[in-house]
Input
Amino acid sequence: MMYLIEQNLRLIEQKQKLKAMFYINYYLRHSSTVLETIPHRHRKDDELIGFSSNLIINSNIKNPFTKEELALLNRGPSYIIPCQLQVSSSSNNKSNNRLASEQFTKLETQIINRIKSSFYDLPQTTALLRKLKVQFGTMFNVFIPTSLRQRSIYEQQLVQAIQESLKKNHFILRRTANHSNQIYLTKQTVFQEKCHEFMIQYKDQFELLYSVTSDNYMDIYLKINDKIVTMNRIIETLFKQKHISKEFYQKLLIHGEDIKLGYMYFLPDISMENDFYLFVKPMFSMAKSLTWNIANFLHRVLQPTLFYLLKSILVSNDCDFFARLNQYYKLEHHHQFSSSTQFVRIKIKNYSTMYSYETIMKQITVVLNKYPCEQISIGTIRQLLDLYFNSNWFFFEKNIFRLVHGMPESLHLSELLMMIASYPWQQTILNDYRLKREFFVRYKDEIFFTWNYTDQELARFLKLIEETHRDVQMDITFGFHIQYLNASIENQSGQLHTRMYDSIDHTSKLNLPYVNAQSIDQSQLYFRSALVRIVSVCSSYEDFVQERIYLEMAYLRLGHSIDLIEFEMKHFYDYFHIHEHRFNMNQTMYEKLRTDLLVFLTSQRASFDPELELESNESVLRLDYFYDYGSNTQFQLKFHELWSHYMKTCSSLSTKKLKIALYGKHVFSLNTLLTKQDSTNQQLKISCSNHE
Output
């Protein structure tokens, strides 16, 4: 009897899956979204190859790739060829055991360096590392299936052929500046010309310090050393004068052997506002740069101030925004949200460059006088900011520049400084009496609010804002239907309707964000967050189904298994206790799911404490390691088990609240293999002596 019951349950589940596949087929055949058509006026200069391609080819050049090479490129710059290191090692007569040992060495070095500064029990640490090495070898020194090995060899051959084709035709590949999983092909000379045009057009933002040649290499090396010495002297003076504590001094001190200069590179900007002519956008990589320690320290000090300053209106992401908007709509609908309610969005177009350093310093001083930091004085913050602004050195094409205007977007401090500096601009808008009962939020460089007055009053209000703050270039849109945070928000006769925005540019719904060297675990985490976002945004069950299908198709298209998708979908429905309704859900059940999710997000926001969050982050050891193929999840479970035992047995650790964040990474994505940047920064690696 039990056998018959189980068999019937399996048949029911199979029918439900077939029904779900029918939905996928139906929506793909009947959808009227961007997948079917992209307006011809936006395809003037660029060509997408294949169905919703991740490869964009400038129409001025002829496609040089074979069908097989195109298929590989269409996986996008995030794609990682499986088992590259193990297959390459076997061809070079290097054993998998030796490779696993070399990969573990990176993790071993990190563990030793991270723990020896504050505690170090040699016998216990040695025992831990020995056990971890055994587990690492067991999990990752494994046999690769023949089919997977053949695929790896074949795809590596395709990469080599693509590299040769790029070199022969003087073409380059670059991922796109919108951080989607897309890659752009154009002529190398054309791209370089665009980069140089940008440098000329915005020359006031950069100061040329040195040009690197083979003759002056050592001179520049010494000048960088001198810069480190000068910066450390300023930090040391602050410590001796008791403006900063010993703990702060140690965090700020620059260790020359860890320093490498930041560098600037360009990516194609294919945003719709450029009509798809080739524009470029500068990107900065500032990790471990001269200002890295100062930037992290100031961010740590100023973040609580920003949080308490803007906590009532600041949204952390799109899910947070829709949780707040839905709460406003549900609670205020009966007397505030009506058929005449409009939406207004104001975006700052020159966000990172709208203020001079002097203005930023002045604005931050005003804010800190009202909301002072407890641990450090305003004068000390000003001195550190001045040091930061004067020390943002970076490489570009064998030249060393200093950034004299604008902020490197890659540093969290840049966002924080601009938020605080633009606070007076924001308050000019928020303090208007007509906005006292309106919904008002801010996300980075964008403000969103509702409006329940006349169009004429709105026009006068917006004009006054523009005239009062002429240094802020604003893109203003308003109406009953607008786009905000890549979502469509519409007032349908007094009913709020939200859904994912149907973009008409090159960004397809089948394109995932660009990520570097991600693992399967990270892919699973993104799938979960994307699913949460879809439910947060889509007020209609029909829209949810369609967006969920796009997400599933995007993962299948990039080579992820149906099992991964099925596991994550089941996990999601189980978490909200509606698994039994997964294949027979309706609008009513979906609204319950969405309400539960948004309430959950709201409770998370209410319990957030920036001080506790920062303290928690500082008590986390972040470790990473590379691997090709094997049981990554099992290794992480074993790692945490061994680490927990290590914490309990070490007397120096028993009272410390220390956590481990462990990240397994793959190496050599297509972006790494095919979009090589200028190697000047690598040639002049700064391995300076320590000047403490």
